[in-house]
Specification:
The complex is a heterodimer.
Chain A: H1 3-12, H2 19-27, H3 31-50, H4 58-68, H5 78-119, H6 132-140, E1 145-146, E2 155-161, E3 164-172, E4 177-184, E5 192-195, E6 199-205, E7 209-216, H7 224-230, E8 232-233, H8 238-241, H9 250-261
Antiparallel strand pairs in A: 1-8, 2-3, 3-4, 4-7, 5-6, 6-7
Chain B: H1 2-27, H2 30-46, H3 57-75, H4 98-108, H5 112-122, H6 128-135, H7 139-166
The chains are: A alpha+beta, B mainly alpha.
Chain lengths: 262, 167
């Protein structure tokens, strides 16, 4: 499979499990980040559509309308069969979805952290310290507050991790820059290792999600995630607020929405 | 009869949210979308004796809704709201968040021939083969339309990001 075929098929079905596509993605350095970008956009699309729910009372109005409708029926069991088959299909889909998610969730999160750092490696080269005002503003977007000293920060921004937004920081370390992701809603039961040829670190669970701390190989990160967790007050209601899907462009989009609204 | 009604109610409860989302994707008007969903279920109720394959119920209801929407456009052009339009006061049933706003606006600008298969895939979760059967086209054509729909969506969203970045 060449890159053109891969991209055509990817855009037709971003979550395809076609073995040829998966093989190409694993081997092609230019198509892999493209695939991640396409899937992130697909998550945004699905989220935007799923956020639409029927107006209050619509179901009752339909049911009432049917009661007044005088259509005849001789096949009394039809709706029973139809309803049962639909509910069964939904149940099977949900079981399949959740089992797949549970199997791959932790691995996917750790890999997403590595992918994110590698895709945005230019942030690791930032040398100037970020102002305290900016640092506080980034957390305030999530209703969170920086309550302790976390040391010098050279990059701070809202970012997209999988299908949620969080806080992306870069701090200087002994072996090189250390990347930190505050990931509200990304719950893990225990600490997870994060590792690649160049980077190493862990994902630490918190009451509101998790924190990923990743540095260059050899960096001492023992207890670093826990110290960061203690330095930030993250409200529980922040979980719902963080499930947006527009990463860095979220605020710009909000501004545009406000303009349209005014 | 009471049993049939109960089963019908179960079906309405299970499927009306996704059919409403599909209708909103087609017409971008909450009132029209509700009418389409209601008419779909009523037609389903009246035509229940004609359906042989109960496994196809879900696809069948989507097809009814799509045909109802097409018929509506033949009779009159309903007041289609700009999908970017945001209510002054957030109301239940329509997410007003900025990211959803931008995506829905872009979706509303895609050619209907491309948007329809995309909605069936994203909202309905139908396979390309099933979409082909519903739209009476072969699977390769469905794949091409899905490709073009997402390509157009990416271009529209990229233009949007560029516009925002320069403001």
């Amino acid at each position: 499979m060449n890159c053109l075929d891969f991209r055509r098929q990817l855009l037709a079905d971003p979550f395809s499990k076609d073995p040829e596509m998966l093989e190409h993605e694993a081997e092609c350095d230019s198509c892999a980040p493209f695939a991640r970008d396409v899937r992130a956009q697909e998550v945004r699309l699905r989220s935007a559509l799923r956020a639409i729910s029927p107006p209050e009372g619509m179901v009752e109005r339909i049911q009432l309308a049917a009661r007044f409708d005088q259509g005849s029926s001789s096949r009394r069991r039809w709706w029973y069969g139809a309803a049962a088959s639909v509910l069964m299909a939904i149940a099977v889909s949900m079981v399949s979805l959740f089992s797949t998610s549970i199997d791959r969730g932790n691995v996917a999160l750790a890999q997403s952290v590595i992918n994110h750092i590698e895709d945005e490696a230019h942030h690791l080269r930032e040398a100037r310290p970020v102002s305290d005002a900016r640092l506080h503003r980034v957390f305030e977007r999530f209703g969170a507050a920086l309550t302790g000293d976390i040391g010098q920060v050279t990059f701070a921004a809202e970012c997209l991790m999988r299908d949620r937004t969080g806080v992306h920081l870069v701090l200087p370390g002994a072996m090189g820059p250390i990347t930190v992701f505050f990931m509200p809603g990304e719950a893990t039961e225990s600490s997870l290792p994060v590792r690649s040829a160049r980077f190493q670190g862990s994902i630490v669970p918190t009451s509101w999600g998790s924190i990923a701390v990743v540095g260059e190989a050899g960096e001492s990160l023992e207890g670093f995630g826990e110290r960061l967790a203690a330095a930030v007050a993250w409200p529980q209601h922040g979980l719902a607020d963080s499930s947006g899907f527009f990463g860095g462009s979220l605020l710009l989009a909000r501004r545009l929405a406000q303009k349209q609204d005014s | 009869m009471a049993s049939i009604r109960t089963d019908f109610d179960t079906l309405v409860n299970a499927l009306s949210p996704e059919l409403y989302r599909y209708a909103m994707g087609l017409c971008h008007n909450p009132a029209t979308a509700e009418d389409l969903v209601q008419e779909t279920f009523l037609r389903g109720w009246r035509s229940r004796d004609d359906l042989r394959d109960i496994k196809a119920t879900r696809a069948w209801l989507y097809t009814i809704l799509r045909n109802e929407h097409a018929r509506l456009y033949e009779r009159q052009r309903p007041e289609a709201r700009d999908p970017a339009e945001l209510p002054d006061v957030p109301v239940r049933g329509y997410d007003t968040s900025a990211e959803a706003f931008v995506v829905r606006r872009a979706l509303g600008r895609i050619d209907a021939d491309y948007r329809d298969p995309l909605l069936l895939q994203v909202v309905g979760g139908f396979s390309c083969k099933e979409i082909g059967e519903m739209l009476d086209m072969n699977t390769n054509t469905v794949l091409t339309r899905l490709f073009r729909a997402r390509k157009a969506l990416r271009e529209l969203l990229a233009d949007q990001s560029l516009l925002e970045a320069t403001q």
